[in-house]
Specification:
The chain is an alpha+beta fold. It has 5 domains: about 160 residues, HUPs (Rossmann fold, 3-Layer(aba) Sandwich), CATH 3.40.50; about 160 residues, HUPs (Rossmann fold); about 190 residues, Valyl/Leucyl/Isoleucyl-tRNA synthetase, editing domain (Isoleucyl-tRNA Synthetase, domain 2); about 150 residues, Isoleucyl-tRNA Synthetase, Domain 1 (Orthogonal Bundle); about 60 residues, Ubiquitin-like (UB roll) (Roll). It is built from 27 helices and 32 strands. The protein is globular. Bound molecules: ligand ANZ. The site of ligand ANZ has 18 residues, from β11 and β15.
């Protein structure tokens, strides 16, 4: 046999697997199905990074394991191919995004194939193809027809110099990434999806999925369910009222001022009464240019302006309180107005300090000990009411309802979740399938005209509008089909729309009549294991769940959660313990790794680095160790001799089957590999037979598919190792038939005896006294006592 040379064998097997179509999922469902999915990648020009390798290898191991267990595995791959980087590259170089995207996909495919990853390529999809985005457009129309898509004005980042809308990522420290001009916020008409209709289900159904708890928490926080009350305050000498949303109606007696969001409509409505209008209106325009995130940053210095000449009346005690505008109150949350209770809210406390406003304590702690101090900071804990008239002594929770009722308020649930803004003033995305009549009314593009294709006659560098606005072809097409004076929508869809339904398409990727047939979806879905990075997980997962719930509600499917089980791979750091980045020069290139060691070593090393979900640094020394291990596996086949296996080899064989099987099921790949290494050591130290080697190859096959396939064939097998049944262990063989018993002389351990487990007490005694080292310490004397604790210890006293 030749030496282990990955170059000689890996490409050969990759070709055979591909030609044999061995990883294609079956559409006859005789075997139970297993749908295993990776978050499909954005095909960037830089090629695969280590996170991809880690993710794809981890799922590949499970996919191969499940196939050996007789499951019908669906393991598809596709491309999240629309997006900004390709468009930005086009702006710089003039190369069309379609060209760069196709090249990047080819490169990704080459790299993935080289890693020996077992995808069903017959189901490959790309979101940037008309065959795919026609269904993305169909989804837009489905939402539109069901009142789940609508248009309204919303803020965008606007660069006044480039005359263009910028994505959030293109705004760096408040200035345009390209030209350095200060970015302003501008109102534009944009399309929204009504995800807020599903807020309650999106929270509740998190209970039914097997996901990492931090991801579930992130989803919950993003949706931000908040239970409280809406209460109205009268404005003195005015008809209008200020409605506030509060989670603490129990503190109403402690409300010492009010705050409106600067954009609140009452500000404009009260203009006549506001004595310091100039000051007020300049604060309003400043606030408009700050993002909500900036405005709600913790610890940020509070700013605001009092509306002089305006005051409100606290409905609990009829006391007059001043009214402010301040940017820490957001226009889009609750009612856009608050009652401020400095004594019990940290932000109000800071604001009151700065503006010299009174704080009135109305809640006192009574547990674990009664305490009602003069406050040094806001007290946000629970307790009983004080200074609240008839409610004094009442508990916080009870008082919430009682006070709300007394002042005619209403208990109310609010969500932080906003509707999903899907319009992008961008070229490289799916066109929104909407046209406008000469009066400017929106109409859906009828389904027969889908795909509503992305025009190619555009300037990538947008000048004051979406690139599609410059397409003659799109304009002419619209007029030709709908009539003179009709105009197309020129925005494209957020690429998150493309990825909100791709997992359905994989079940039926070539369907020309539906996005996927109900039958296929019901057979394959939900996804049994979904894996990808944690960094983009919040929004993508939320949107995918939203689409699934829409389909369920409209009767297209029967279930409401797309991903039954979710796991995230951990971040791979560079050898210097920093995040891999070009500028640090600590990036490990997958191509070079495979070139140097082969795909099997690369796969095995990436899984051996540490627990899959942990953050872990690269270590090139350990790669050679893993590579040597594969060389030793090769050597075991070379050194195979006829004959009976040793007891130890047999026992270890079955123990390893058990351990590796359990570890794969919990994705504990690093410990599974460690067990395989131990097994190899045992086989080197004890006589073994063909069966022990075959078991080793089968257990190792999901991790190192090429070398195991090669050695399997070398052993004379004619079918693929990846089609073999997964080994099972025999419990009886796990039990060792010898045991180690320590022997003490006068309380000190002087020997370890290797004896049969069924040894009699007398034989054990005799064996202990016969041991050379025991004899040495007994010094020829007659022992006073020899005590045997069965299976544990022999103690000699002299
Ligand atoms: C009075 C009060 C007293 C409050 C108290 C809190 C503590 P969550 O839990 O996040 O929902 N609030 C309401 N609308 C707001 C807006 N548009 N912008 C900024 N803050 C707003 O927070 C609800 C609380 O945040 C509300 O309860 C309100 O302050 C404030 F001791 O009302 B509270």
């Amino acid at each position: 046999m030749e030496h282990y040379n990955p170059k000689k064998i890996e490409e050969k097997w990759q070709k055979r697997w591909q030609e044999g179509g061995v990883f294609e999922a079956s559409e006859n469902f005789e075997k139970p199905k297993y749908y295993i999915l990776d978050m499909f990648p954005y095909p960037s020009g830089a090629g695969l990074h280590m996170g991809h390798i880690e993710n794809f290898t981890a799922t590949d191991i499970l996919a191969r394991y499940q196939r050996m267990n007789g499951l019908n595995v669906l393991r598809p791959m596709g491309w999240d191919a629309f997006g900004l980087p390709a468009e930005n590259y086009a702006i710089k170089t003039g190369v069309h995004p379609a060209t760069t995207t196709v090249e990047a996909i080819q490169n990704f495919t080459r790299q993935i194939t080289r890693m020996g990853l077992s995808y069903d390529w017959s189901r490959e999809i790309s979101t940037a193809t008309p065959e795919y985005y026609r269904w993305t457009q169909w989804f837009f129309l489905l939402l539109y027809k069901n009142n789940l898509a609508y248009k309204k004005k919303a803020k965008v980042n606007w660069c006044p110099k480039d005359q263009t809308v910028l994505a959030n990522e293109q705004v760096v420290d408040g200035v345009c990434e390209r030209c350095g001009t200060v970015v302003i916020q501008k109102d534009l008409e944009q399309w929204f999806f009504k995800i807020t209709d599903f807020a309650e289900e999106l929270i509740n159904d998190l209970d039914s999925v097997d996901w990492p708890s931090h991801t579930v928490t992130n989803q919950r926080n993003w949706i931000g369910k908040s239970e409280g009350a809406e209460i109205e305050f009268r404005i003195k000498n005015q008809e209008s009222r200020i409605k506030v949303f509060t989670t603490r109606p129990d503190t109403l007696f402690g409300a010492t001022y009010m705050v409106l969001a600067p954009e609140h409509e009452l500000v404009e409505a009260l203009r006549e009464n506001i004595e310091n209008w100039n000051e007020v209106s300049s604060y309003v325009s400043e606030a408009r240019n700050r993002t909500d995130r900036e405005r709600s940053e913790e610890g940020r210095e509070k700013t605001g302006v009092q509306l002089k000449g305006v005051s409100a009346v606290n409905p609990a005690n009829n006391e007059e309180v001043p009214v402010f505008i301040a940017d820490y109150v957001l226009a889009q949350y609750g009612t856009g107005a608050i009652m401020a209770v400095p004594a019990h809210d940290a932000r109000d406390w800071e604001f009151a300090k700065k503006f010299n406003l009174p704080a009135k304590q109305v809640i006192c702690q009574y547990y674990p000990e009664p305490k009602c101090p003069i406050l040094e900071e806001a007290y946000t804990g629970s307790g009983r009411l004080v200074g609240s008239g008839e409610f004094d002594g009442m508990e916080v929770e009870e008082a919430k309802r009682a006070i709300t009722e007394r002042v005619g308020g209403e208990m109310k649930t609010t969500y932080r979740l906003r509707d999903w803004l899907v319009s992008r003033q961008r070229y490289w995305g799916a066109p929104i399938p909407i046209v406008y009549d000469p009066e400017g009314n929106a109409h859906p593009v009828p389904e027969e005209h889908l795909p509503w294709t992305l025009p190619t006659d555009v300037e990538f560098r947008p000048e004051g509008a979406s690139p599609l606005a410059l397409s003659k072809e799109l304009k002419e097409r619209t007029e030709r089909i709908f009539g003179e004076g009709w105009t197309p929508e020129v925005d494209t869809m957020d690429t998150f729309v493309d990825s909100s339904w791709y997992f359905f398409r994989f079940t039926d990727p070539r369907n020309e009549k539906e996005f996927a047939s109900k039958e296929r979806i019901e057979k394959w879905m939900p996804v049994d294991l979904y894996m990808g990075g944690a960094e983009h997980a919040v929004l993508h997962l939320l949107y995918a769940r939203f689409f699934t719930k829409v389909l369920q509600k409209l009767g297209y499917i029967s279930f409401g959660e797309p991903f039954a089980k979710l796991r995230h791979q951990g971040i791979v750091l560079g050898e210097d313990n920093f995040k891999m980045s070009k500028s640090r020069g600590n990036v490990v290139n997958p191509d070079e790794l495979v070139e140097a060691y082969g795909a099997d070593t690369a796969r095995l090393y990436v899984m051996f680095m540490g627990p899959l979900e942990d953050m872990k640094p690269w270590n090139s020394q350990n790669i050679s160790g893993v590579h040597r291990f594969l060389g030793r596996v090769w050597g075991l086949v070379e050194g195979l001799k006829e004959g009976e296996p040793s007891k130890e080899a047999l026992r270890k064989q079955h123990a390893t089957i058990k351990k590796v099987t359990e570890d794969i099921q919990t994705l504990s790949y690093n410990t599974a590999i460690a067990a395989l290494m131990e097994y190899v050591n045992t086989l080197y130290a004890n006589p073994y037979g063909k069966a022990q080697v075959e078991t080793l190859l089968a257990l190792l096959a999901p991790f190192a598919p090429h070398i195991t396939e090669e050695l399997w064939a070398a052993l004379g097998n004619s079918t693929s190792i990846h089609a073999q049944p997964w080994p099972t262990h025999e419990e009886a063989l796990l039990v060792s038939d010898t045991m180690t018993i320590p022997v003490q002389v006068n309380g000190k351990v002087r020997a370890q005896l290797e004896v049969a487990t069924n040894i009699t007490e007398d034989d054990l005694k005799a064996a202990a006294l016969a041991h050379e080292n025991v004899q040495k310490y007994v010094e020829g004397k007659e022992p006073k006592a020899v005590i045997v604790i069965p299976n544990k210890l022999v103690s000699v006293v002299v």
